[in-house]
Amino acid sequence: MDIAAASMSLSEAQFSAAYDTAMVKKSMDNMASQAEALINDMLAAVPAPGQYGFDVYG
Fold first, then answer.
1. What is the pLDDT of residues 24-58, one digit of tens each?
2. Where does 1-58 show beta strands of DSSP type E?
3. Which residues of 23-43 are buried (b: 16+ CB within 10 A; e: fewer)?
4. What is the chain's percent helix, strand, coil content, to nearest 5?
């Protein structure tokens, strides 16, 4: 009976680890897509460079 309990405990631990890993991966994928959207928004907010390449703040 002890072997069966140990086997069930091991199986439960493996499932828990796999579930936790899947949840962390999904969270990281969501964060990556949010970061990509933020970067694209920031790039869109920057005005295009001028036709002439000189600094007016000099």
1. 999 999 999 999 999 999 999 888 777 777 766 75
2. none
3. eeeeeeeeeeeeeeeeeeeee
4. 75, 0, 25
